[in-house]
Amino acid sequence: MARREHQRIAIVGAGLTGLLIANGLDLLGIKYDIFEREVPESKRRREWSMGVHWSLDLLKELIGAEKSAQLVEKATVDCNLDYSTAPANGALVYDGVSGDVLKNLNVQGTSLRVSRRRLRALLAVDVDVQFEHTLRSVHTTTDEVKLAFSTDNDIRTYDIVIGCDGPQSTVRAFLYGQEGSAKPLDGTSGMRWRSLVCYHDAEKAKHVRSAHPVVAISIHPDLLFFLGPQDAHDSANPAEWTFVVDLHWASGSESANDGVEALKMAKKKADKLCEPFRSAIRWIPDDTVMQASDLNVWISRPLKDRLLSPRVLLAGDAAHAMPPFRGQGLNHAIQDSYNLVQTIKRLTEERATGAVADEALDAYAEEVIERGAAETKASILNGKMMADYYDFKSSPYAKKGFSKG
């Protein structure tokens, strides 16, 4: 790595992970370019909620005091809640047959439930993202990385390239070849359906939310059901609250071919559920579009020869594409971002080059691989045990809840 006053850094992917890294570098005054293959967020439909628990302090350090002060108001699913205490700082797992509470997932201290879209909008403030830039190729030399994008014929040269481009990462594919492809989790194809639902009825909305103000999970032999508000900021108007309805058919169950069929199947299965989960499905408007959501996973693994590309790194889903069954994906993405920003900070302060810089970047990569692989395996196991209903009490969720590791 040649000696320069500032390293040339490229962030590929402007999802949450890429924006977290960009925010961290901005606070340090370290320059970078950030590229995103898709159009700006305002034109995209995908939306869901995520938990920020053990990584919250790292998140605040990455984004600084000004944005941290806006997290509850601008990023959460309900700005009226006190996320520092129960029940809003956790979730409840129910037996979908009996209605009994199987597990209280409260954590110590503050735990936020954030909207993916709202958090991304907050993180994107003052970040100059180059949208509609699809990565075409990555070439490494002894001390540089060259990127080519489909939008132009220019070859852009960097000292460090960070792949934050999601579960089906192009940067990961460059590093690992065919071994870098995320694969559908066994037995889940056509089994997971998600939608945002507005019931347009205040009493119905309040009943649906009665299971838990933030996240309620129902475990049933026929159906695994994640339910929670997606936008409940207007406390005076419950009729307009929107909820995320996330349904997983049990292993070995019939699969749906499209969203219309999925909704019909869900309403049929709902007859066996306890309240309020039964009504939460029965009351879904018939014209609601259920969207298939394949569970693509990739377990982190060492590169066969990292010396060939020591300055190409991965973070977030690109580094460890894990299923959502333990609520850990965003937290590990925040940990990745924090670790990488700290590594780049140290390299910049020390003006490290050559083998010294490569060693520091290798240390980052090795830690991400070890931590990411362990959590991805735990999340896969947890999902299978939750879907099998009778195994839940032995699952990582039941034993460790939202805790790290």
Structural class: alpha/beta
Low-confidence stretches: none
Strand order of the largest sheet: 5-4-14-15-16-13-17
Mean pLDDT rating: 90
Question: Measured on Cα atoms, how large is the radius of gyration?
Answer: 22 Å
User: What is the CA-CA span between the terminal residues?
Assistant: 34 Å
Integer tally of domains: 2
Please give the CATH architecture of the largest domain: 3-Layer(bba) Sandwich
- Helical content (DSSP H or I, runs of 4+): 25-40%
Based on CA inertia axes, which overall geometry fits?
globular
Give the C-level CATH assignment of the largest domain. Answer: Alpha Beta
Q: For this structure, what is the CATH homologous superfamily of the largest domain?
A: FAD/NAD(P)-binding domain
- Helical region count? 11
Instruction: Please name the CATH topology of the largest domain.
Output: FAD/NAD(P)-binding domain
Relative strand content = 15-25%
Biggest sheet architecture: 7 strands, mixed
How would you briefly describe this protein structure?
This protein is an alpha/beta fold and 405 residues long. The chain is built from 11 helices and 19 strands.
